[in-house]
């Protein structure tokens, strides 16, 4: 009897221990999709978190959020600003704040607790903070916009114009680059917090007591300055000193003003104003008192050593003009003038997109003297970048550095198709070893041509400056990296790198087309590359900013120009092409589907409706005839306008797609009248599209191009009975061309999507694994290190473009098999459907979805197939395993039919489909 009691106690102890072992952990808590955001510009910020658990099939069933304006209170579990109470919900993303009114510039603290479906209550998460921005324009008062000088009203030009064919009126006096300083006193008592709110246009660099504040590059983000400007928020609590402190600010032109100097490259002419700034420093002391330092007439200003600043033409710096210590308290500014106060223009709001920073430093792989006195530094990688110069020489000596993507036949920098002439120059002060990097301009390059100096160790009879080091600093948007891909194919791994470098190089303040010649936000790239980029980087903030740029650039008649912000009014189809402007409808929908944020549809419904109504006004019997079409398709002529697909087909297909998105959006937002309106109109467009473009006798669209049939299939314009013939035509066209690509900028993404959806990933493999025909492999063979503008890597086009990078999406959704479920948002439910194609025998993919990290790793070894996956807590997945014989399938070494936590769904198209909840799984099939 005693023995039974002992065993009973042991069993009870083990059972209790097993219950104790079950836990759920909260990680990666975020406000407004950032860890500790500053400058929050909404009174209803959102909260999100991810979960980890030690058992399978875990879901959240409830949460409680606390928000406090006092961290000590929050540590006592008191949310004096908001206590949500227990909310029964599975949702752990985009939870709207619902507490007391949030105050401008105030800092708040928050944490969250959850309950899971196993009855486990989590510990509280770690505490994180968020700080509000200046919510209203009045909150900036009494700070004023200030400048060194104002542009004459007659010289203001916006929107600007492209130079070709346009007369340029040169300015009587070009803008000088100013530097401002402001001494101020800090009381000798404990500081609780000190925050700088600052906008310096076009771009600024802020220093405090002689040290740069932050590590950003090209702050603030680009905007349409007549409508809105952005400010940046910095915490400078640890940089303040008791007594006198000094703020220093340098400004550059950016897109605010493009210099009209004809000796330097200019894509366009545009002048909103000369450089200007506004600043407020908000200091809160521990005793609750506050003090503000505001920009006004009392600030001092003079010309900086930056003698030329152009986003298109480069930057010149004259170190002989430096005034040492200008941004410290020991400096005498008696020779400086007082700043000029100027009127505010447009709305001022917080920069929501992630800042640009130096992401990587590349050393040269070779240095050659290709002509007497001319040295070429090769950094081995084409990237968006600036240079870092370390040089020693005489006072007044000048070093000129010309970046380029590739070289001429005689070994000189070739800028013919990347914007010429562009250079950086540095004039030495002669004070020992000098270090310099440009502050307000960047370029896309691999090579740098150096004139006026010699590399260290080279004979120097002329006594020229000696370059002790010259490196490439890759600059890019700092959106978090969320995806990883690798497979057994070295070709595909190299293609991944090729595309990724172009993505990184064009992730700036907008998604640019190229990092040199244009630097503009061409909108077709933004919507067509959205999924490809989102698998690799968290672009929620960046794309929200792009949508805001479209709102600022939209015309009164509803037209969304091809570029946003619109700095130049390009002619005809280059301003009004539906394949580009449709980003105004597609991107809000994409942001909702990928990140699960319904508010983006609510806030941009007018943008979407206005554009669709504009397209409707341009239709003739429900067909659109304008636009660039399938830009840069591979036809018989030099790439440009669509060659293989009638130009009316692609804009009408996008118009139909927009109508369906708008109908679905209207339904989500409970706008029943609009839902029926756009649904009925879409039906009419589909009928007209098929009547106009479908060849009934041949069973395909238009002239049978890859683009024509693929876009019709993807947009569901094809009637059910004709889908098979259209797909056959696509595959036949590819095979008849010996697996060649012809689809261009617009069509290629849809071609890949259709082939994947229709189970033809083997065709995608065949098209993209070769190197003897124009395509990715061909570009690699030509020596490209980033994606080129043309399939054929033409030297008459850019060699750093991300507009054709759509294979990136297939690497994740096809080879990796990670796909969003059509009935869910934000990967709350997703698909795992790996494609084992060609000679690929393993692949390893991971993707940090909004709910957590998804992993998909498969390998074919001998006669076995092994598939290891991770499903995040609070999500479910359908996994499509190859084969129909369930007797051959095992999970974690046991027959899958014995696994109670795995649900069999059905067999379909040669795959066995199972539903799985959160956890790690190891499937195996043998023989395979």
UniProtKB/TrEMBL annotation:
Record keywords: Hydrolase
Domain called Bacterial alpha-L-rhamnosidase N-terminal: residue spans: 189-359
GO molecular function: alpha-L-rhamnosidase activity
Gene Ontology biological-process annotations: carbohydrate metabolic process
Residues in Alpha-L-rhamnosidase C-terminal domain copies: 823-893
Protein name as annotated: alpha-L-rhamnosidase
Broadest EC class assigned to this enzyme: hydrolase
The organism's place on the tree of life at top rank: Bacteria
Alpha-L-rhamnosidase concanavalin-like domain: residues covered: 369-453
């Amino acid at each position: 009897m005693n023995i039974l009691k002992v065993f009973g106690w042991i069993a009870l102890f083990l059972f209790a221990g097993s219950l104790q072992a079950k836990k759920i952990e909260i990680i990666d808590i975020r406000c407004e999709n950032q860890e500790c955001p500053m400058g929050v510009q909404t009174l209803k910020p959102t909260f999100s978190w991810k979960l980890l658990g030690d058992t399978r099939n875990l879901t959240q069933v409830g949460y409680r959020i606390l928000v406090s304006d006092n961290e000590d209170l929050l540590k006592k579990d008191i949310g004096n600003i908001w206590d949500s109470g227990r909310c029964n919900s599975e949702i752990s993303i985009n939870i709207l704040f619902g507490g007391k009114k949030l105050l401008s510039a105030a800092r708040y603290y928050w944490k969250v607790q959850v309950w899971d479906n196993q009855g486990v209550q989590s510990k509280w998460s770690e505490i994180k903070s968020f700080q509000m921005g200046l919510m209203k324009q009045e909150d900036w008062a009494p700070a004023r916009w200030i400048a060194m000088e104002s542009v004459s009203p007659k010289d203001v030009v916006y929107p600007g114009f492209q130079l070709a064919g346009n007369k340029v009126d040169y300015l009587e006096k070009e803008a000088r680059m100013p530097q401002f300083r402001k001494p101020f006193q800090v009381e000798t008592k404990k500081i609780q917090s000190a925050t700088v709110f600052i906008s310096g246009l076009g771009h600024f660099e802020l220093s405090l007591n002689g040290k740069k504040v932050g590590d950003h590059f090209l702050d603030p983000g680009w905007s349409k300055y007549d409508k809105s400007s952005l400010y940046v928020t910095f915490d400078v609590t640890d940089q303040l000193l008791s007594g006198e402190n000094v703020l220093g600010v340098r400004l550059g032109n950016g897109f605010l003003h493009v210099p009209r100097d004809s000796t330097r490259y200019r894509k366009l002419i545009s002048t909103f104003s000369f450089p200007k700034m506004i600043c407020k420093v908000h200091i809160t002391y521990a005793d609750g008192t506050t003090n503000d330092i505001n920009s006004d007439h009392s600030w001092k200003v003079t010309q900086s050593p930056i003698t030329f600043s152009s986003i298109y033409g480069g930057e010149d710096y004259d170190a002989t003009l430096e005034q040492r210590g200008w941004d410290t308290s020991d400096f005498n500014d008696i020779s400086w003038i007082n700043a000029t106060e100027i009127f505010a223009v447009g709305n001022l709001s917080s920069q929501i997109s992630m800042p640009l920073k130096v992401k990587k430093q590349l050393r040269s792989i070779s240095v050659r003297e290709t002509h007497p006195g001319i040295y070429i530094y090769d950094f081995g990688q084409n990237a968006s970048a600036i240079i870092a110069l370390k040089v020693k020489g005489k006072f007044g000596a000048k070093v000129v550095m010309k970046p380029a993507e590739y070289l001429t036949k005689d070994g000189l920098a070739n800028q013919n198709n990347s914007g010429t002439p562009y250079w950086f120059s540095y004039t030495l002060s002669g004070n020992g070893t000098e270090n310099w990097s440009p502050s307000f301009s960047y370029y896309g390059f691999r090579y740098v041509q150096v004139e006026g100096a010699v590399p260290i160790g080279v004979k120097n009879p002329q006594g020229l400056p000696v370059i002790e080091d010259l490196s490439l600093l890759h600059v890019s948007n700092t959106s978090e990296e969320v995806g990883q891909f690798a497979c057994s194919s070295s070709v595909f791994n190299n293609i991944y790198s090729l595309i990724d470098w172009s993505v990184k190089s064009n992730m700036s303040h907008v998604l640019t087309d190229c990092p040199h010649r244009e630097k503009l936000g061409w909108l077709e790239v933004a919507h067509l590359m959205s999924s490809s980029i989102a698998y690799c980087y968290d672009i929620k903030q960046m794309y929200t900013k792009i949508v805001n740029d479209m709102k600022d650039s939209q015309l009164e008649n509803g037209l969304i120009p091809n570029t946003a912000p619109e700095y130049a009014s390009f002619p005809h189809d280059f301003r009004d092409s539906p394949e580009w402007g449709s980003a105004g409808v597609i991107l809000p929908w994409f942001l909702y589907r990928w990140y699960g944020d319904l508010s983006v549809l609510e806030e941009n419904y007018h943008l979407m409706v206005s554009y669709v109504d504009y397209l409707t006004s341009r239709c003739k019997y429900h067909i659109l005839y304008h636009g660039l079409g399938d830009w840069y398709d591979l036809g018989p002529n030099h790439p440009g306008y669509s060659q293989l697909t009638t130009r009316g087909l692609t804009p009408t297909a996008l118009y139909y797609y927009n109508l369906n998105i708008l109908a679905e959006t209207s339904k989500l937002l409970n706008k029943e009248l609009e839902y029926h309106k756009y649904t009925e109109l879409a039906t009419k467009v589909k009928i007209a599209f098929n009547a106009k473009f479908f060849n009934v006798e041949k069973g395909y669209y238009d002239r049978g191009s890859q683009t024509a049939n693929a876009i019709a299939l993807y947009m569901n314009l094809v009637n059910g009975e004709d889908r098979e013939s259209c797909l056959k035509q696509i595959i036949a066209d590819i095979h008849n061309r010996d697996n060649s690509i012809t689809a261009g900028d617009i069509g290629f993404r849809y071609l890949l999507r259709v082939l994947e959806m229709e189970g033809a990933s083997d065709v995608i493999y065949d098209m993209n694994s070769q190197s003897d025909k124009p395509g990715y492999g061909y570009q690699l063979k030509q020596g490209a290190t980033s994606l080129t503008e043309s399939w054929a890597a033409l030297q008459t086009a850019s060699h750093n473009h991300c507009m054709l990078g759509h294979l990136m999406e297939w690497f994740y959704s096809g080879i990796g098999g990670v796909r969003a479920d059509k009935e869910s948002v934000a990967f709350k439910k997703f698909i795992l459907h790996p494609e084992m194609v060609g000679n690929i025998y393993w692949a390893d993919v991971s993707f940090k979805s909004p709910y957590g990290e998804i992993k998909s790793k498969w390998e074919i070894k001998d006669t076995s197939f092994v598939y290891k996956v991770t499903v995040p807590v609070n999500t479910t997945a359908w996994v499509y395993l190859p084969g129909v014989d369930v007797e051959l399938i095992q999970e974690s070494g046991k027959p899958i039919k014995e696994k109670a936590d795995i649900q069999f769904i059905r067999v379909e198209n040669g795959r066995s489909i199972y539903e799985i909840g959160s956890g790690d799984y190891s499937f195996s099939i043998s023989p395979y």
